[in-house]
Structures are given as structure tokens and as C-alpha cells.
Design brief:
Elements (H helix, E strand, L loop, with lengths): L2 E6 L5 H13 L3 E6 L5 E3 L5 E3 L2 E2 L10 E4 L3 H9 L1 H13 L2 E5 L3 H6 L7 E2 L13 E2 L4 E4 L2 E4 L5 H13 L1 H10 L5
Parallel strand pairs: 1-2, 1-6, 2-5, 6-7, 7-11, 8-9
Antiparallel strand pairs: 3-4, 10-11
Helix pairs in contact: 1-5, 5-6
Length: 183
């Protein structure tokens, strides 16, 4: 079964977390929202508090199909400070597990050396942090097991790209129709 883990660190951009999680769940994908805090409570960049499904330290990643990183300036900084997450992402890349990041969060992948030789995009001004990547300026970049996107305004495109990657074009089109996206 397909399982996606979406990581929430204090300061995450709410739309960049909720929109992909919602679209993936609409496609029937099991999504686990993971708090990097010691509790399930996480506060977004606009002071919206969410309750995650699990705490990082309590998770087992054996069933992972994809790891997703939402952005937000402070959220991305907190993702970068989490050493166990960095180790998990490196191991996932070695195992061929898909990595996805939006807004400033692709810099986490870039600074870990996980974008080398791949096309990637990010929030304007973060391009220098996509170390080794071929930077493009499309809403979403998909390259060899890594999916990146530019920001809050591309969250729907990003979420649908994740659905398309895991379930195929037909499933992504069905979710887009049901949500009246670009009708």
C-alpha cells in the first residue's frame, strides 16, 4: 500500500502542507502528518495550530512511498535543524523513496546533496541553495525521484503532481475534476 509521510515543523506554510495532504487523501493515499516536535501540536507560519497524526520519534518508515516537506521560512529552518530527518532523507534517497518539497523546503534537499544533476524549483531567492540542481522556473519540477515546487500559489499543482506520481494521470485528473481545479 502507498504511504506518504508529510513533515510538520513549527513555522510551516499551512497551505503547502494541507493542500497536498488533502489531495493525496482524496486519491485514496494513506498520508501521515508527522510532527517534528515532542508532541503532535504544530503551529504554522500564520499561527494556525494543527494536530499531527504522529510524532517523528514514534514513527517506523518501512512502509514509506514518499516523504513530503512543506516550506515556510521558519518551517524550513526547523526542518534543517532536525538531524534525524536529514538522516532519514539521505537513506530514503539511497533506497529510491520519492522526496518532495515545496517553497523554501527544496533547499533542505539541496543542502543535503540530494538534488545533484536533477531539475528542481523553489521559492524565488532560494535558488542558490539547490546545490547541484538544474534550476527551472516551472510551478513543479519532477526529476528522478524528486518532486519540487515553488510556493503557496503552486500548492495545488504540487499536490496533483504527487497524486500523478503515485497513482497515475487518470487519478490526478479525477481529483482535479472533483475539486473543480481549473475548470
Amino acid at each position: 500500500m502507498t504511504k506518504v509521510y508529510l513533515f510538520l515543523a513549527d513555522g510551516f506554510e499551512e497551505t503547502e502542507a494541507i493542500t497536498p495532504a488533502d489531495l493525496l487523501r482524496r486519491a485514496g493515499i494513506d498520508v501521515c502528518l508527522v510532527s517534528l516536535n515532542d508532541t503532535v501540536a504544530v503551529t504554522g507560519s500564520h499561527n494556525i495550530r494543527l494536530s499531527a497524526d504522529a510524532v517523528f520519534a514514534q514513527c517506523c518508515w518501512d512502509d514509506a512511498s514518499m516523504f513530503v516537506l512543506p516550506g515556510g521560512k521558519m518551517g524550513t529552518e526547523n526542518l534543517e535543524k532536525h538531524g534525524p530527518l536529514a538522516e532519514l532523507l539521505r537513506n530514503a534517497d539511497n533506497k529510491g523513496i520519492t522526496l518532495a518539497a515545496i517553497c523554501a523546503a527544496p533547499r533542505v534537499l539541496g543542502r543535503l546533496g540530494l538534488l545533484e544533476g536533477k531539475q528542481a524549483c523553489c521559492y524565488p531567492g532560494e535558488e542558490s541553495n539547490l546545490i547541484g540542481a538544474q534550476v527551472i522556473y516551472e510551478p513543479v519540477a519532477i526529476a528522478n525521484g524528486v518532486i519540487t515546487s515553488r510556493g503557496m500559489g503552486t500548492a495545488f499543482d504540487f499536490g496533483l503532481a504527487l497524486v500523478r506520481h503515485l497513482c497515475g494521470a487518470e487519478a490526478a485528473e479525477a481529483v482535479a475534476r472533483k475539486t473543480v481545479y481549473k475548470s
